[in-house]
Design a protein that fits this description.
By secondary structure, the protein is α/β, with parallel strands linked by helices. It is built from 22 helices and 16 strands.
């Protein structure tokens, strides 16, 4: 559906409900994504020379790869850049182009049909694998459409260009689309599918855009219709009434109150809760420091590796890490070692033929099959730490056992890195947190993966959005168990060992209160989320946070937990959160 579908008929009020993934309230006209690239007819024949057709195919793929890399350079967030770089690798995948070329020569198919057929086979294979690889199927389909459009001389699918602010509606958004959105024009995102931890949700939060996913019926709302979007509640209303307009005004007033963060996270009783930032580039780090972040709770180091055919040198990595460390002189910077595999395949490190890569060789496990890459990365991190005044902590992703934690500690210690930890992303790590913390200094909860693995729910499936929520009581119990493990251990000073959260859950102000009540010590989030989380934490004390945590844990569903806690926090309504 496009703007051309608008008629002179009176606009009808329609109330829709989905899953709110990024807070904010706006009213603007809805605009739908451009029509998808049409599938070339089955059996569309080759015209002309096969070799020339294959050359055209290769050239189109390289042009799309270059375009996606250029978009990565213009992306407004490090997570968007990471995703775009990974997607650009798909466009240049030699096996994909080779398979398409074989269809041109063997079956005399047109290059458009051959590419479509080869890419579709890839996407189907990814969906059959489930987990992260199923999540990447939409990306390969996006690449498929872009290459076919290039071969036809058509415009690539993407976000419509407008001068006036609008709400963007789509079935779902490809990373290449969301990564270059202009938040001054696209003022909210609404998708019919997707879950609370999908790429669309994560990038919307990074951009500070109100967003709702899994909104059934949004594609039937005629383009040009004014719509109200409440990104906290997941509400979308076509032809909004006066009270929705008043809600937008109230949100604008609240947003003005949240425009700054004084650099200190604390509860009303003075209990400190350091608020840190998730970053992935030097620009991100400087922006987070300017926003008042008390340090970095998650440095995603994949930015050094994605989009490359070979491992970066120790010198290259050292320079990149030092740039980020320099933005936080004298403050804590928690570095996550390379989290390759699953949705972030690397040609020199991971095996893309794994039947279930989400449960395969990813994160720390890549050191089992390709030893040396992790050690060289730790060497670079240590060198960058020595060059700067940041207090560098280092942690490994995808740890499941105390034995793995001990070995990582040994690897890091060899390089002189004194403070070591692990990500808690698996139920195994959560329930053995005490044993793990006897071997390392801290843990950090990656709530995106922990939720997905605990609930066995693919984070990309809109139908599973309720299951794939960090508000699930089972997930909260995993966090509670991890915090209890930390309380049962102590460092050299006799203090219990630190447990933090660096997943998307920390950016939800209401859930942040629950996390603190469960025993979490530090919270790390996008820089845009700091002020809202700080404002809500400042209005509750430790006892209230613990009561709300107990309320959430005892709930029977994610929805019940979320609604029960939010009902006890009037500050959320006051601040439009």
């Amino acid at each position: 559906m496009t703007d051309n579908d608008v008629t002179g008929a009176a606009q009808q009020r329609v109330e829709l409900r989905g899953v709110g993934v990024s807070p904010g309230r706006v009213i603007a006209t809805v605009v739908h994504m451009a029509p998808a690239v049409s599938e070339p007819p089955e059996g569309e024949p080759l015209t002309g020379d096969a070799e020339a057709a294959i050359d055209r195919l290769k050239a189109a793929a390289l042009e799309v790869k270059a375009e996606l890399k250029e978009r990565a350079a213009r992306a407004r967030s490090e997570s968007a850049a990471e995703v775009l770089k990974a997607t650009s690798l798909m466009a240049g995948d030699k096996a994909l182009i080779k398979n398409a070329g074989k269809l041109v020569t063997d079956q005399q198919l047109s290059p458009e049909r051959a590419l479509w057929q080869a890419a579709t086979a890839y996407a189907d294979q990814m969906r059959a694998m489930g987990g992260y690889m199923a999540e990447r199927a939409a990306d390969i389909e996006d690449v498929r459409a872009r290459i076919v459009a290039r071969l036809r001389g058509e415009d690539a699918p993407g976000v419509p260009q407008r001068k006036e602010p609008f709400v963007l509606a789509a079935e779902d958004l490809a990373p290449a689309d969301t990564a270059v959105l202009d938040p001054d024009v696209v003022v909210a995102l609404v998708t019919a599918s997707g879950g609370p931890q999908s790429h669309t949700a994560i990038l919307a939060r990074n951009l500070g855009l109100p967003a709702a996913v899994a909104v059934e019926g949004i594609l039937e709302v005629p383009a040009g219709t004014p719509v109200f979007v409440d990104g906290a509640e997941g509400a979308v209303v076509a032809a909004p009434a006066e009270h929705e307009r008043e809600a937008v005004t109230a949100w604008q007033r609240a947003a003005a109150q949240l425009a700054s963060f004084d650099g200190r996270g604390a509860l009303a009783d003075g209990t400190e809760v350091p608020l840190l930032a998730n970053v992935g580039t030097g620009d991100d780090a400087r922006a987070a420091a300017e926003a008042g972040a008390e340090g970095v709770g998650l440095l995603r180091t994949e930015f050094c590796f994605l989009g490359r055919d070979s491992e970066p040198t120790v010198a290259e990595q050292t320079q990149a890490y030092a740039e980020i460390f320099a933005a936080f002189e004298g403050k804590k910077v928690v570095v996550r070692t390379l989290d390759a595999g699953a949705d972030k395949p690397l040609p020199f490190l991971t095996d893309t033929t794994e039947p279930n890569p989400a449960l395969g060789v990813r994160g720390y496990r890549t050191d089992w099959t390709t030893p040396g890459v992790l050690q060289r990365q730790l060497e670079a991190i240590a060198a960058a730490a020595r060059e700067t005044g940041a207090h560098v902590w280092v942690m490994a992703p995808m740890i499941a056992t105390a034995e793995e934690a001990a070995r990582f500690h040994e690897l890091a210690s060899v390089e002189g890195l004194q403070v070591t930890g692990v990500m808690v992303e698996t139920p195994a790590a959560a329930i053995t947190a005490e044993q793990i913390l006897e071997r390392v200094d801290f843990v950090s909860l990656g709530t995106n993966d922990l939720t997905q693995y605990t609930m066995a729910a693919d984070r990309m499936l809109g139908a599973l959005a309720e299951l794939n929520s960090p508000w699930q009581p089972a997930v909260l119990r995993m966090i509670e168990r991890t915090a209890a493990g930390a309380r049962a251990t102590s460092d050299a000073s006799g203090e219990h060992k630190n447990v933090g959260v660096c997943g998307e859950a920390a950016a939800d102000p209401a859930l942040a209160v629950v996390l603190v009540g469960l025993g979490v010590d530090t919270l790390s989030m996008s820089a845009r989320s700091l002020s809202a989380v700080a404002a809500v934490l400042a209005r509750v004390d430790t006892a209230q946070a613990e009561r709300l945590a107990a309320l959430a844990v005892s709930a029977t569903s994610a929805r019940e937990a979320k609604e029960a806690v939010r009902a006890q926090l009037p500050v959320l309504h006051e601040l439009g959160l």
